[in-house]
Specification:
The complex is a heterodimer of chains A (107) and B (115).
Chain A lengths: L3 E4 L2 E5 L4 E7 L6 E7 L6 E7 L4 E4 L2 E6 L4 E6 L8 E7 L3 E2 L3 E6 L1
Parallel strand pairs in A: 2-11
Antiparallel strand pairs in A: 1-3, 3-8, 4-5, 4-9, 6-7, 7-8, 9-10, 9-11
Chain B lengths: L4 E3 L2 E4 L5 E6 L6 E7 L6 E7 L2 E4 L8 E4 L6 E5 L8 E8 L9 E2 L3 E5 L1
Parallel strand pairs in B: 2-11
Antiparallel strand pairs in B: 1-3, 3-8, 4-5, 4-9, 5-6, 7-8, 9-10, 9-11
The chains are: A mainly beta (107), B mainly beta (115).
């Protein structure tokens, strides 16, 4: 199957610290790796994505890194703020989502 | 540009009753997805359409769930009869392409409660 494992399931950081969430996948044919943010009671929204021809992509305080050899990709959030508190999901291939990471940023 | 529209936003029904959800994707998006999201979990695909054709429906419990996408635009998802375990948020999403590289846009979801 096309499994994706996401860790950790919960993450609590102090405001200003960094947060890292990792997804590991099994399908070596995967070539598109998006991350979604879902606030409580709201829809998942794409925050950043990466394609397999690059190893890293940044957008202000968020970044995604990809290691195709090891088959994992990670979401990095720097200088975290309380409004970053949400559940984050990775996705591989067309429609396989990770189980989610609940990020809590403490002010 | 309008986003993905879903209705109703909330639905409470008794078990064994039927229920239907409606989705209007972003104009021009040929691929439409129905997901189910249980509390604390990631979205799980129920069915994916490319235009009018259902191309991924292996996760759809076909004994009680059905879906259609007439004219390749709007879609409806039906459950009949509903069971207690069907309580979840049903999300519709659409994308321009169905390949791996498609950025999916989600609707607000329908929160179903079966009592």
């Amino acid at each position: 199957g096309e499994n994706v494992e996401q860790h950790p399931s919960t993450l609590s950081v102090q405001e200003g610290d960094s947060a890292v969430i990792k997804c590991t996948y099994s399908d070596s044919a995967s070539n598109y790796f998006p991350w979604y943010k879902q606030e409580l009671g709201k829809r998942p929204q794409l925050i950043i994505d990466i394609r397999s021809n690059v190893g890293e992509k940044k957008d202000q305080r968020i970044a995604v890194t990809l290691n195709k050899t090891a088959k994992h990709f990670s979401l990095h959030i720097t200088e975290t703020q309380p409004e970053d508190s949400a559940v984050y999901f990775c996705r591989i291939n067309k429609f396989y989502f990770g189980s989610g990471t609940k990020l809590n940023v403490k002010p | 540009e309008a986003g993905v529209v879903q209705s109703p936003r909330y639905k409470i029904i008794e078990k064994k009753q039927p229920v239907a959800f409606w989705c209007n994707p972003i104009s021009g998006h040929n691929t439409l997805y129905w997901y189910r999201q249980n509390l604390g979990q990631g979205p799980e695909l129920l069915i994916r359409y490319e235009n009018e054709e259902a191309v991924d429906d292996s996760q759809l419990p076909k004994d009680r769930f059905s879906a259609e996408r007439l004219k390749g635009v709007d879609s409806t998802l039906k459950i009949q009869p509903a069971e207690l375990g069907d309580s979840a948020v049903y999300l519709c999403a659409s994308s321009l392409v169905g390949r791996q590289g498609g950025e999916q846009y989600f609707g607000p979801g329908t929160r179903l409660t079966v009592t």
